[in-house]
Structures are given as structure tokens and as C-alpha cells.
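Researcher: Structure for this, please.
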Amino acid sequence: MNTLQTIIGALVVIALLYVAFIVGAVIIRILFGLLAIIVAGFLVRRLVVRSTDRSP
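Model: Predicted structure, C-alpha cell format:
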């Protein structure tokens, strides 16, 4: 019984770590995507401001 409980416990811990790793990777991808969108928005605004400033 003890060995069975330790095996089950190890499998549960591995499963939890695997799920946490997947969730963390998804959250990191979402955060990087939002950061890229924000940076792209700022760059586009700067380019638009520069083009409008150059044109009379």
C-alpha cells in the first residue's frame, strides 16, 4: 500500500507540474502577444506623428 501511495503521489505531482507548465507557457505567450501589440501600436503612432509633422 505504501509503495502504491507513493507512486500515485508522484504521478499526481508530475501531472500538476505538467499542467502548471502548460498554463504558464500559455500565460507567457499571451503576455508577450499583448506586449508586442502595445509596442507595435506605439511605433505606428510615432510613424504617423512623424509623417503628419513632415507633411504641411
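Researcher: Any notable elements?
Model: Residues 21-56 form one domain. Residues 17 and 23 are 10 Å apart (CA to CA).
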